[in-house]
Amino acid sequence: METVRSIEKGRTSTPEFFTVAALATELGLSLDELYILVREPTCTDPDTGHD
User: Fold this and answer.
1) Is residue 20 part of a domain?
2) Tell me, what's the pLDDT at 48?
3) Amino acid 45: pLDDT
4) Which of 11, 13, 20, 43 is buried deepest, with most CB atoms within 10 A?
């Protein structure tokens, strides 16, 4: 749990591959699905479509 907190708070800016893989597994995602989600463009303001 401390690892997740570190990632959230920015103390761990580049988590280990196996940490990311373990989190994806716990969230029910394959690494392929995770890759697709990470590559999708995101916006913070759905009204304007801009960050």
Assistant:
1) yes
2) 55
3) 56
4) 20
Per DSSP, 48 falls in state T
Intra-chain end-to-end CA distance of the chain, in Å: 30
> How far apart, in whole angstroms, are the C-alpha atoms of residue 33 and residue 38?
9
| Number of domains within the chain | 1
Give me the amino acid identity at 8.
E
* Cβ-contact 34, 17 below 8 angstroms: no
**What is the pTM for the complete model shown?**
0.62
Domain-embedded: residue 47: no
Q: Which residues contact 19 (CB under 8 A, 6 or more apart)?
A: 3, 7
pLDDT at site 43? 58
Short-list 49, 24, 19, CA closest to 34:
24
